[in-house]
Amino acid sequence: MTQQTDIRAGGASSRPTAHDTSVLDNAVWAALDGPHAHLAERVGRAARYPDDVYAFAALADPRDPAAWTDLLTLVGPGTTVRVKPVDTVPDGWEVVGGDGGTSHALKAMGEGVQLVDTALRAEPAPEAVRLGPDDVPEILDLVARTQPGPFLKRTIALGTYLGIRDRERLIAMAGERIRPPGWTEISAVCTDPAYRGRGLATRLVRAVAAGIRERGDTPFLHAAADNTTAIRLYESIGFTLRRRSPVLLVRSPGTSREATAL
Questions:
Q1: What values do phi and psi take at 251, rounded to 5?
Q2: What is the distance between the alpha carbons of residues 241 and 128, in angstroms, rounded to a whole number?
Q3: Which tens digits make up the pLDDT trace of 71-102?
């Protein structure tokens, strides 16, 4: 099936392109080994995003002990790192839970859900503006107030981020995060509490999805499994729940240099 795009004024990308969903089983690795390879810090069969971009690591095969050895080489001893999808860790590695913060998507031993676009109406949002590096302080302020999930100082390097402003103040945003081959994740969907109930998040998701479809990718997204409100919203606008997987924070074997110095 080929992608169809209506380029008339106010038109919408009509249907998602059919892509191999198996790459989404290990989406972070597929992105770091593919379209986001230029961002990857990598040793053999382990890779991660820079800490100020997206604080996740990935393994080519989480069942492969050699991949975990590569991850230890990459991150060093006594280092905590977020990984998914991982059900168990080898001897010497310790599951320490979540990040200790307030991010809805990273609670201790949290479970995430993955949803894929099957019937989303993608269309531009004329009121949306593209956000850039100069907007990061304002983005971080909105993220701190709304807690959509992790957004760091250079997360904006991952893709296109769109925002809606009211009297120059950023009140809602959504953008692109990981990019496995053929797919792009929609992320950082958030709205200022004072502006909720106006459909801003839905308009931004559809606008970001339109850009994703234009380059031939299919949108997908993640949410915390207990964030039932967000999941219902995404399903109502055309996403389908595909899978559940744990989100773990693990500590590598050994003692870090910093801890030794103390």
A1: -115, 130
A2: 27
A3: 999 999 999 999 988 888 999 999 997 433 33
